[in-house]
Amino acid sequence: MDTALVAIVSTGAIGGVLGVVIGVVAKAFAVETDERIERVGELLPGANCGGCGFAGCADFAKAVVGARALPGQCPVCSPDDVRNISQYLGIEAEQKEKRVAVVRCSGDCANTVRTLYNGIRDCRSAVVVAGGAKGCDHGCLGFGSCANACPFGAIEIRDGLAVVHPELCVGCENCVATCPKNLIVMVQASVDVHVYCNSPEKGAAKRLVCKTACIACRKCVKAGEEGQMVVDGFLVRTNYENPPTTDLVEKSQCPTSALRLASKHAANEYQGAAK
Amino acid sequence: MNEKPRKFKGGVHPDDSKALSASKPIQDAPLLEKYTVIMHQNIGAPPELVVKKGDAVKKGALLAKATGFVSVPLHAPTSGIVSAIDKCPGPTGLAIPAIEITADGSDEWGSPFEPIADWRQCPPAELRQRVADAGVVGMGGAGFPSHVKLSPPPGKEIDTLILNGAECEPYLTADHRLMLEQAEEVVVGAAIIARIIGLDTAIIGVEDNKPDAIAALEAVAGRYNVRVQALPVNYPQGAEKQLIYAITGREVPVGKLPMDVKCVVQNVASAVAVADAVVRGRPSIERVTTITGKPVVRPGNWRLRIGTPIAKALELAGGISEQPAKLLLGGPMMGIAQRSLGVTVMKNTSGILLIAGDEVSLYTSEPCIRCGRCVEVCPMSILPATISQAVENKRFDWAQQLNVTACIECGSCSYVCPSHRPLNQHFKWAKVEIQSKLRKK
Amino acid sequence: MPENESSPSIRLPDPAKLVVSNSPHIRSGQNIPRIMFTVVAAMLPACVAGVWFFGLAALEVLLLCTASCVLFEELWNRLTQRPSTWKDGSAIITGILLGMNLNAGVPWWVCLLGGLLAIVLGKQLFGGLGYNPFNPALVARVGLLIGLPEIMTTWNATRSMGADVITTATPLGMAPGAVEIKQMLLGNTGGCLGETSAIALLAGGAILLAFKLIKWEVPVAFIGSVAVITGIAHWANPAEYHSPVVHVLSGGLLLGAFFMATDMVTSPMTRKGALIFGLGCGIMTSLIRLWGSYPEGVSFSILFMNALTPLIDRMTIQKPFGYVAPEKGKVA
User: Fold this and answer.
1) Domain B27-113+287-359 carries which CATH code?
2) Neighbour-count burial of B243, counting CB atoms closer than 10 A to its CB (0-12 exposed, 13-18 middle, 19+ buried)
3) Residue of A nearest to B339 (CA)
4) How large is the C-alpha radius of gyration of chain B?
5) Which residues of chain C have a CB within 8 Å of the CB of B337?
6) Residues of B in contact with A114 (CB under 8 A)
7) Does C8 map to a domain?
8) What is the DSSP string of B381-440?
9) Is C236's Cβ below 8 Å from some Cβ in A?
10) How confident is the model at residue A273 (pLDDT cuts 50, 70, 90)?
């Protein structure tokens, strides 16, 4: 009994003394912090995706308070968030347009020839072996380097193809640099019509290896208004400066289904569409 | 100089399987209808086209000219018409531009230069220019332009020329047959290269599993003041740094070149190409290639023109008796797996190797059990297991600290790994990432 | 350009069936099960000796331990929905090693508990084979030793000691001078069922060395340093301390030095590291045996050095071929 008492008392005493010491030190050596930084940090979404170009949300909050960045630079913030932060800091809320990623390839395993590959399941690593062992030299390898880089789970690997879910994508751009085939571009979220092909090869060569390649038949160019779809070599691209309306996909009857709506592509509605 | 070669640290002893083709004399391949010469066959800048579709060319005529110092020209493998300039499957699996020549059947020479009969009197600079004009590259595998190696920058003294006849890769016997059948050309090539870099002697390093080649070389070597050095069998004996160490005892510093330890290394096949260019006035348009592997009906060694499609080459060897699991350009340790028969023979295609299914069954990688075998066999004394784990976690900075850049990609570590880890691919990947990071800076 | 147009009589490879992968394209044929089952073969002589001297009870313990390790490995993999791994042989090795580290007379539930400790606590919680920092069999042994000290320090007598003798002491527990070296070599003495026969253990060690499954540096440094340190102690005070011969031949030293300290996963990868590791084990063992409160210290010392392995690995990173020290003032 005695020993227990001694132990309790002595441990308690040590704890008390240390507590006092820590308290004094914390007061004496306290670091001045700007409470605004903390508050802005709370208003930010806290995803720490790095999409703003700063080292996480805390760093970005510091930059915003220090007027080195604008709240709108945060790709994850909704317009409401931006307004709240701007109001709190008493600065003007800028208008920003949401951007989303598009993986410009529709060559999943069902559509594109693939070679048997035995190696590391990572796109950036696979390219050192036979360029990724896909029939199309320019297509998505589907090992998911981009999906792994996405902090928001917006990229799905579906049958060997990376598919962006636009409603989940916040536009942080983390995926863009990971793609060894440079397939990912950032576009305005309001545009829904994209060409899901990025191969500069000739149409015939593309058709040999992929059912859903863009063969530059120009049906979409003719179906749309002047300048909405632009021809670039053996490839047609959406003109994001002058985007077409969503009914273009229906109107143009793309023979390879390379022309798709991002929303429907995400919902896997083009499966088996290629002839 | 010592007679006994040093043993470099590490190395492995795979079953060499050379018996399939070692006793088969080199055969000349018959003329084909079409050749597809891949545009970019060397390390460095690709050459620039000087012909256009429809042009008639003579055998040996210039097809593309060098576009800088580290670049080599290409020549027509036969006389005929340039029938297409298009993309063809490249050795890395990606399509690359190529020139298709449709033969006219006459196979008439039109070499852009004359033989230099008296090369012993010829100024070294002229000989070096000839090597460059003939488009000679390192024919052992790398495809590094030979004339670049023979042009040490001022201040770099060279005192040793080594000819690499180790041929340590299993299966390959092309260099073996070349040394045996064309010993004189090899030695003459060595003497010419020695003259270019201002030496009067050279050493030919040959693994001692080729005693007949050593004997053949020794029979002629004395006349040209060339010495033949037998080397113990130990893969990768033919890796440049290991070869230099075995013969001279010098260690090439990490990230440096052989010339930093006063050495120049050339492949024996490149030496023959140099001799051809100088003595016979012929550009580099053919090479000896081993076509082998268990599925091959008649394995052997052929003298193939650059641009010969792999499918045609395999037909020479009688085709296959069973579907192979892999088609390789080069040997089994460092060769590149192909996925198309449309690839064509290039200047550095030392072998066309088919590997049967039972030899390569698909490996799944298991966790490292830290057995340390990879550390034992690494000829560069790095820690493959540790680096591989760093790469697995995408810590390329750790990999760099652990000297992944010193790796020569010989594959010894992957060869012995009981967990079948893709070590070599990890290192290649890490090097790519480190390079791209450097480029960004 | 033409893909492939071959003459009909000659068969060419079908490109669609070709596999691409990075070089090298041939492998040595070495794999984990092969390594593991060679180790099992190397352990057999000592196991046979154990069964010979302690009777069928020893066989029962060995089988129970192995079965429980395999059982828990499979159970864990099922629970966590991972591929089954017991066939790779590592759980079998752990089981046999655990059995060899137990007295022949332990109750059945001790074997079961040992298997649980070894596989789940010692291995799977860290991520399975290759990721465990400590030797799983030793984790179980030490766990049992601390939790069940009485069961774990009672030693069955060997069969030749007579029917009236049921338990005995280990040589290290006896007074110096009372130990018979010949019996220790054979294994006719008290102790864990797998550690008594020095000859059988040495034979197993020879197999491991012959197949290059262990680095010679570990057992040599381990046993050597124990011999030297206990030798000095014995020379200084023969009445108090056993002779180095007894130390080397007794207890789990040979078992530990050849079969447990050399475990690939938990020992350093480089030869230099292995030497340091063996020395450390030897010094720790000697200190515990000579002056610690336990008569035996092999298990503790190996576990201790297991913990230091990452540090040793870091210390012994080898310089690459052609390494040049970075210039002063420059950060590499």
Assistant:
1) 3.10.20.600
2) buried
3) A115
4) 21
5) 18-23, 25
6) none
7) no
8) ---HHHHHHHHHTT-HHHHHHTTGGG-----HHHHH-TT---HHHHHHHHHHHHHHHHHH
9) no
10) low
Domain B117-280 classification at class level:
alpha beta
Give me the residue label for tokens 């028969």: B341
Phi and psi dihedrals of B287, rounded to 5?
Answer: -155, 160
Domain extent, residue C102, equals 32-313
Q: For chain B, what are the domain ranges?
A: 27-113+287-359, 117-280, 373-440
> What are the b/e assignments for B318-335, b being 16+ CB within 10 Å?
bbbeeebbbbbbbbbbbb
Best mutation target among A129, A141, A143 (most C Cβ atoms within 10 Å) is: A129
Instruction: Return the DSSP state at A28.
Output: H
Chosen for mutation from C21, C23, C27 (greatest number of chain A CBs closer than 10 Å) is C21
Q: Does B93 touch chain C (CB under 8 A)?
A: yes
Asked if residue C164 is part of any domain, the answer here is yes
Q: Both tokens of residue B310? A: 């792999």
- The mean pLDDT of C236-262, rounded to a whole number, is 88
Task: Report residue A185 as tokens.
Answer: 């571009």
Helix, strand, or coil here: B360? helix
Phi-psi category of residue C153: left, alpha or beta, with phi > 0 → left and psi -120 to 50 → alpha: alpha
Instruction: Give the CATH number of domain A35-89.
Output: 1.10.15.40
For C188, the token pair is: 């006719």
- C-alpha dist (Å) from residue C332 to A60, B251, B433, C328, C329: 32, 20, 18, 10, 9
Tokens of A108: 């999943």
User: Residue C7: pLDDT above 60?
Assistant: no
Q: Is residue C78 part of a domain?
A: yes
At B304-342, the pLDDT tens digits run: 999 999 999 999 999 999 899 999 999 999 999 998 888
- DSSP 8-class letter at B296: B
First to last CA, chain B: 45
Contact in structure between A99 and A76 (CB atoms under 8 Å)? no
Q: Which chains touch C (3 or more CB pairs under 8 A)?
A: A, B
Euclidean distance between CA atoms B102 and C256, whole angstroms = 73
CATH of residue C118: 1.10.3430
Q: What number is the ipTM of this complex? A: 0.86
Q: Which residues of B touch C10 (CB under 8 A)?
A: 314-315, 318-319
Q: Which residue of B has its CA nearest to C262?
A: B371
Cis bond upstream, residue B258 (ω within 30): no
Q: Where are the beta strands (DSSP E) in B259-385?
A: 263-267, 286-292, 300-305, 326-329, 336-338, 351-355
User: Cα(B288)–Cα(B294) distance, rounded to whole angstroms?
Assistant: 20
Sequence spans of domains, chain A:
35-89, 99-266
CB contact under 8 A, C322 and B359: no
Q: Matching CATH topology for B27-113+287-359 and B117-280?
A: no
Is the Cβ of C325 closer than 8 Å to some Cβ of chain B?
Answer: no
Is residue B219 less than 8 Å (CB to CB) from chain A? no
- Per-residue pLDDT at A101 exceeds 70: yes
Is some CB atom of chain A closer than 8 A to the CB atom of C26?
no
How far is Cα C139 from Cα C302, in angstroms, rounded to an integer?
A: 10
Total domains, chain C: 1
| Residue B209 in contact with partner chain C when CB distance is under 8 A | no
Examine residue C23 and state whether it is found in any structural domain, yes or no: no
CA C231, chain centre distance (Å): 25
